[in-house]
Amino acid sequence: MKRPRLLIFGGTRDARQICVMMDIAGIDYGLSVATPTGAQQAAGIRGEIVIGRMEAEDMIEYLRQQGTDMVIDASHPYAERLSQNIVRACQKLTIPLVRYLRPSEIDAVEHPLIHKVVTIGQACEVAVNLGTRILLTTGSKQLADYVSHLKGKTVLARVLPTADVLAACESCGLSVDQIFALKGPFSADFNRAFYQFCRAEVVITKESGEQGGFKAKVEPCLSLGLPCIVICRPHLRFSGAGIQQAYGLEQMAPFLAVFSAKTANQPER
């Protein structure tokens, strides 16, 4: 008999912390990330790192080939399509799925300067009436959508310092004065100084939780009197046979304990 194998999806800090928990527990696992950057961030984990985006059919084939016994979706809270594909693949193969949910901090911030919206379009509609220099701390994936909605404004983008991301910024027409290539996490003090340095008049961010430095992005806005537009998380439903949810790292421990027990009772492959 083979040892049970677990696959984690996600290039987030949460996913990497779950990998560390796996390493401590001695669990046989793999980590699936979309890009080489995600693999770089996960350097040092013991599990196998799989690089490349997968659609549902790709996942089904990979999970079947690997003989995966359990999946953890620790992807970014805004990665809707990825999470939906993971659900389809796991249900097709009847593989147990644990959806890791990063704790939210959105209810802890209420202030006249904070504007909560649900779409990029809504964020831009609010932003155009609040200032000219608009700072995005939302990543590069949907940068083109922001630029198209914010014509006539000076769009400032804080993004990861990789060649692909910088090329995406340039393809959207951003100049070197509009691109700030930096890797977090950033403290509140750093963000405060950064907002002042780039002369931001409005900040657009996401409800990224503690792992994404949400409060560290919002609090400096309040102290500087800057409007902060927060794109709230999509309300994804995760229900069905074989699907369980874990809110935060502490709730992951029981799932890993059960899986570790299964591992201990099986011989090495």
From TrEMBL:
<dbReference type="Pfam" id="PF02571">
    <property type="entry name" value="CbiJ"/>
</dbReference>
<keyword id="KW-0560">Oxidoreductase</keyword>
<dbReference type="GO" id="GO:0016994">
    <property type="term" value="F:precorrin-6A reductase activity"/>
</dbReference>
<protein>
    <submittedName>
        <fullName>Cobalt-precorrin-6A reductase</fullName>
    </submittedName>
</protein>
<dbReference type="InterPro" id="IPR003723">
    <property type="entry name" value="Precorrin-6x_reduct"/>
</dbReference>
<dbReference type="GO" id="GO:0009236">
    <property type="term" value="P:cobalamin biosynthetic process"/>
</dbReference>
<comment type="pathway">
    <text>Cofactor biosynthesis; adenosylcobalamin biosynthesis.</text>
</comment>
<keyword id="KW-0169">Cobalamin biosynthesis</keyword>
